[in-house]
Amino acid sequence: SKRNLILAIETSCDETSVAIVQDGHLLLSNIIASQIKSHMRFGGVVPEIASRHHVEQITQCIEEAMIEAEVTYSDLAAIAVTNGPGLVGALLIGVNAAKVLAFAHNLPLIAVNHMAGHIYANQLVQPLIFPLLALVVSGGHTELVYMQEDGDFKIIGETRDDAAGEAYDKVGRVLGLPYPGGKRIDEMAHEGQDTYHFPRAMLKDDTYDFSFSGLKSSFINMVHNAEQKGEQLNPENLAASFQASVIDVLVSKTLRAARELEIKQLVMAGGVAANKGLRSALTKAVKEELTDVALLIPPLALCGDNAAMIGAAAYIKFKREEFSGYDLNAQPGLSF
Ligand code: KG4
Ligand code: ZN
């Protein structure tokens, strides 16, 4: 039978990415042009700069993805694109590029939710098994998502304030690390110990919600107080203590939800799913306490933003023929 090739585009934040995905799970190419260096000196993503870089990069990324996958437009079955959530100007570049390709080559257009994409990154590794629970942890989101079946997303818990990745990056800034600090904090945490014992917010309440702004504030206060008194704090121990608090809350809430919802599979998703401490803590906890649940963690390359995950998520809509018109717009605040 014919292979279904989807060309997928992702431009929601600071990576311009184009991928070719076959049948929702086979990755033929996944080009990622990162803009991190351009945003670093501003200590965060500058939306206007992000849009400009997407404009400059998108055409070449599309060409490279096609060349690497050894496909031509006549081989393609659909064009998929992230239409939200994300930065509106950044999203618009991808949405317009996708519309142009769909129109020029007479292909169906598929709109994909960026967060659904993060979850479906797992499908590039192994088939999803339902009902499943996804721990979605990125720079903008921290959510527990329950899925009864393909394409059906129910947020059962979420952060009431900062996202986990956001807290990592803010704490990184206080330690003088370049943006985004998440990865470096993770590395430092492995060289230190939980000596400072930060609070574990909402650990014992009966919701599946999270909160990270209190932890962030305690961290910042501790560093500022020490500075004022001229005291030396150990940066590795600070990182380890911060990370221990984040992981403790994420893992215990996720495990409780997994147990109560009687899921078959637990998946991790989003940039913070690249966190080595979190990956090993969740692996250990599932092994010890959830023996009948399959745990799926994306490889590091598929945790951060990429178009391959968009192509994987698009395949469900492709099969259901849920296509968009040329009036498709960016939806910066799009939810599931
Ligand atoms: O999913 P993503 O690439 O972009 C969003 O959709 O937000 O996530 C980016 C976030 C950043 O906050 C970054 O610091 C964090 O993921 N991150 C990490 C690690 N690698 C990336 N946080 C903790 N540990 C890591 N190893
Ligand atoms: Zn993302």
Strand order of the largest sheet: 3-2-1-4-5
Summarize the main sheet: 5 strands, mixed
Per the CATH scheme, the topology name of the largest domain is Nucleotidyltransferase, domain 5
Q: What global shape is seen?
A: globular
Q: Could you spell the SSE succession in H and E letters?
A: EEEHHEHEHEEEHHHHEHEH
Gyration radius, in Å: 20 Å
Domain Gcp-like: 27-311
GO molecular function: iron ion binding; tRNA N(6)-L-threonylcarbamoyladenine synthase activity
EC number: 2.3.1.234
Binding site for substrate: 136-140, 169, 182, 186, 275
In words, what does this structure look like?
With 336 residues, the chain is an alpha/beta fold. The protein has 2 domains: 5-120 and 303-319, Nucleotidyltransferase, domain 5, CATH 3.30.420; 127-297, 2-Layer Sandwich (Nucleotidyltransferase, domain 5), CATH 3.30.420.40. The chain contains 10 helices and 10 strands. The chain has helices at 36-40, 47-69, 88-104, 114-120, 164-174, 182-189, 213-229, 235-261, 276-289, 308-319, and strands at residues 5-10, 15-22, 26-34, 76-84, 109-113, 132-137, 142-147, 154-158, 265-269, 294-296. The strands form 2 sheets. A 5-stranded mixed sheet has the order 3-2-1-4-5, sandwiched between helices. A 5-stranded mixed sheet has the order 8-7-6-9-10, sandwiched between helices. The longest helix has 27 residues, at 235-261. The mean pLDDT is 97. The structure holds 5'-O-[(R)-(carboxyoxy)(hydroxy)phosphoryl]adenosine (KG4) and zinc ion.
